[in-house]
């Protein structure tokens, strides 16, 4: 999809961690909007998207000068106590435009020089491997959480056709492991996958987070239901994968391959 990003000057960058992210002191969003346009994204129904007048997935705002604003806020926040940051809560920090704009990298440069207590980088983009040098400077204060909802490429194309291929994400996890960057694979939301899914991830990560629409959308699945996601499962004859108990099958599969203490469910898997 072709789109032209708009450029905005932010007044602030750090937001207080609340709700699902209450385990963090702050969230940090380098961009507004998201070009990946995932069918099930809860942000579609938030005011930032609802009042935009453009379809979700067709627009991205670049926050110019974000690093300067963030640098000052980070100092103030650290003076008040422990700072833990979730990046990002309403966008992917590695939008395709990040390759050119480098807003996320500029924020990482600030943190490499003045580290928070902890940073979680939530993404589904292989572009994160570009910043291995900065992530390594954060040591054990950082974790990259790579979304890999399924090992089936046909499922990715059905539910999230605008996102990077699964194989590219697996190669990125391999690169992070080789470099020594702490990382986890996040199966969120759980999409239809094969029995071999856990075995494909076992050589790449030692930490798994599993989440679904009913635990993770902040409304017990009501937000997702309003998006009509159930119809997408009906179209492929896999409605049994849509329900509050569907994640259990995937969880049990992972317990056959990973130690139980390395497989986290929903909010606990994202926390510092």
Question: In terms of per-residue confidence, which ranges show pLDDT below 50 for 5 or more consecutive residues?
Answer: none
Which class of secondary structure composition applies to the elements? alpha/beta
Q: Indicate the CATH architecture.
A: Alpha-Beta Horseshoe
Which radius of gyration do the C-alpha atoms yield?
Answer: 18 Å
- Strand percentage lies at 15-25%
Largest sheet: 8 strands, mixed
User: How many E-type strands?
Assistant: 11
Account of the protein in words:
It is a single chain. 43% of the residues are buried. This protein has one domain (6-270): pyruvate-formate lyase- activating enzyme (Alpha-Beta Horseshoe), CATH 3.80.30. Strand 7, helix 5 (132-137) and strand 8 form a beta-alpha-beta unit. With 272 residues, the chain is α/β, with parallel strands linked by helices. The chain is 35% helix and 16% strand. Helix 2 (66-80) runs parallel beside helix 4 (103-113). The chain has an eight-stranded mixed sheet. It has a three-stranded mixed sheet with strand order 1-5-4, with no helix packed on it. The protein has helices spanning 47-50, 66-80, 98-101, 103-113, 132-137, 153-159, 166-179, 197-201, 213-216, 222-226, 229-235, 246-255, 267-270; strands at residues 6-8, 14-16, 26-28, 31-33, 60-63, 84-87, 118-123, 142-147, 183-187, 208-210, 263-265.
